[in-house]
Design a protein that fits this description.
- The protein is of the alpha+beta class and about 160 residues long.
- It has two domains: about 110 residues, Tumour Suppressor Smad4; about 55 residues, no CATH class.
- Helices cover about 15% and strands about 20% of the residues.
- It has two helices and nine strands, in the order βββββααββββ.
- The strands form three sheets. A four-stranded antiparallel β-sheet has the order 2-1-9-8, with no helix packed on it. The chain has a three-stranded antiparallel β-sheet with strand order 5-7-6.
- Helix 1 crosses helix 2.
- The mean pLDDT is about 90.
Length: about 160
């Protein structure tokens, strides 16, 4: 088992989002010229949604307009099928809160389209002692936050076991 705090991340490393439907991957469009085990190394600025951080399939966040749109579609289908309107009740049924206080995030039981919108301009855990073409390599413990409340973190660094 790798120690993510002491390991660097490479192209195609698997990531997860706390609001995502499934795991995804980190991708590099261009190499920085540094390779680990024949794989391009990821740096702090490789954090653009849908370019470097690929879709998690679906998003459960109530902050995501696509998820709320999906909940409304389901409510309309139920209304047409049952002949009664209960859109507000549906929102209560589908919506649960995770966390506490200011860090509380509403999570839906249905998922809308995931389009990661990263709110930072870099990953948060880097090696300050090394630079790759002016950027710092990221550690496996690095995370990002999505605009819709999801915390994105690595499942593995993508490096193969020795």
């Amino acid at each position: 088992m790798e120690d993510k705090e002491k390991t660097y991340v490479v192209h195609t490393a698997p990531v997860k989002c706390s609001m995502g439907m499934r795991p995804s991957r980190v991708a590099l469009q261009l190499t920085h010229g540094v390779f680990l085990q024949n794989m391009p190394q990821v740096t702090e600025k490789d954090c653009k949604g849908m370019l470097n951080v690929l879709s998690f399939g679906g998003c459960f966040s109530a902050e995501n307009p696509k998820t709320m749109e999906k909940a409304r579609e389901i409510a309309l289908e139920v209304k047409e099928e049952k002949g009664e309107s209960f859109e507000d009740q549906v929102m209560d049924i589908f919506c649960i809160s995770e966390g506490d206080g200011d860090s509380s995030v509403k999570k839906m039981s249905c998922a809308g389209e995931c389009i990661p919108v990263i709110i930072a301009d870099s990953w948060d855990e880097v090696n300050d002692l090394v630079e790759i073409n002016g950027d710092k390599p990221i550690k496996g413990s690095a995370t990002l936050m999505c605009k819709y409340g999801g915390k994105i973190e690595f499942i593995q660094t993508g490096q193969t076991e020795s």
